[in-house]
Write the structure tokens for this entry.
Amino acid sequence: MMLEVKGLAKRFGNINAVNGVDFHVAAGEAVGLVGESGSGKSTIGMLVTRLIAPTAGTIRFDGRDITALREADLRPLRAKLQIVFQDPWGALNPRMTIARALEEPLKLHTDLESSARAARLRDLAQRVHLPLASLERFPHELSGGQLQRVCIARALATQPKLIVLDEPTSSLDLSVRAGILQLLAEIRRESGVAIVFISHDLDTVELITDRVLVLYLGNVVEQGATKSIFARPAHPYTQTLLSANLPPDPDAVLKRHRVIGDTPSPIDLPPGCAFASRCPVAIPACRQARPPATALGDAHSAACIRIAEGANLLPT
Amino acid sequence: MSLLEVDELRVHFASRGMDNRLRVAHALNGVSLRVEEGEIVGLVGETGAGKSLTALALLGLLQPPAVVSAGRIRFEGRDLDPLKSDVRGTRLTLIPQSPHTSLDPLMRIGDQLVRMQREHADVPKKRAWQRARDMLAEVRIPAPDERLRAWPHELSGGLAQRVLVAMALVNRPRLVIADEPTTGLDVTVQAEVLDTLRELVRAHGMSAIIITHDLGIVAHYCDRLAVMFAGTIVEQGPTRKVFHEQRHPYTRALVASTPKRIAERGFGPVGGTPPDLYALPDGCLYRDRCVRAAAICVQPPPNVPFPGNHSALCHFAAEA
């Protein structure tokens, strides 16, 4: 396994951002983390890249336990474990040219001579379809789409085995977004890098990933093959989330499931299922204990106690 | 006569740079738009296309250095001034994008709804308070009596956005402009807010313009749609017809770049950037990005009409 996460938890003060999450990513696989704001998906991204330390649980990367590594021991690992953030404007130093920004990881993680680094820079720019002239530019001279390509190139510079992409297209315009998605597909094909793709955009996740984890208030409520989850969502939250998606097709028939109210505060969550307060099929037992994952075959599972009696499907 | 008629609206911004040279940004380059009674129109386009600027002009909120160089806006048969408005807040209102920065943090929800009414008409306080309560109930805020006394920070994003819908509708406008009304909201909440907005617009015979870059919202909530690019409306028509026929190459590119279409048909040609508003090319503004561009595109494109109140700004719009 490229990445193996067990019982992962993170508390910020009195907020339980992540509450015991298990998942794995195989070499070359693309796994999606889906959820709404406050679901803990970005926190998981920062935990598995060890930008922050977990409160509990273990993280194994490429066969090594990295849960408690010190910063000095993490450094060589960072070459193999990269992250790309949502906002490319904030992720690049405004006073560094693109070439310098891309060269930084090469200086830190490789022994390449300056001429070899320069060759690698040109190669990287070509791989992400950036005009070579943009290497000498500053971030403010490039468009958002181009800047996101720079961030992806920087993540690729050290030939990582896993890249976490945290909402990499959310701040971009539609037509620019498509170009970035196409680039990601190309990179996966050529380099075989594994991807953790964090997004609230269901259509993009369906397009990009092999497997999906659906998160709600720091818990995995459902996981499985992307095809299987989108075709047969089992958890009431997943059903609700998918039914609220608006496909860009006026002829698509919507079967909306309504829930009660907004997402509750992640402070002092009740003991049972986190979705129980909004769930139309919740029963008193749902509020008593955290529901275990119920296997649905094909590595698809959902944490809902009503699946056993077949009462998990929401009425339309 | 349509409720709203915008004809050939042109707006530019002139400013001097550090070199003291005058630079002119051509932000709106001939926007023509109709909104009929009872209709919901979607205004779509990418960043910088001029969607929000069009809304500001309709609301009379353009400020210098904005210069309206041509065009006119007629609303309910009267001319509107893009620089000031006597119908804003009453006949024509706005639902802004970010709920928590649009509400006054130092004023209770009820007081803000009361102020909205008394600012524009001589309503007794008590009646305005009662009306504020009814309005919160109309936008489906649970326990409206308690919520009247709530502060903005006590509301979730979804509830705060509902309060903004209530504020925009409390004076029973004829036309409400929703500028990215659900962009910051979660999808499950977004759908509920849009449902409420649509129900109320329909129930009271109002019209609405929904500004968005989300084609899913347009497809499911708008009767008609207008696609903006570089300060022009490149295609407009009934939603279903535009999605089916896609007469303008930009409309085709937009639809083709949605993940759903990519999943069905693979990646299509994309790329390029919008034109520099400081140095617009002659002729078609889309031609540098266009897959169909030809020599004739240096000439200004005609607005080609199609049956059913549908038109597209392209030399080749009539091609299948």
Remarks:
- The interface with chain A takes residues 46-47, 142, 156-159, 186-192, 213-220, 239-240, 243, 253-263, 267-268, 270-271, 273 of chain B (CB under 8 Å).
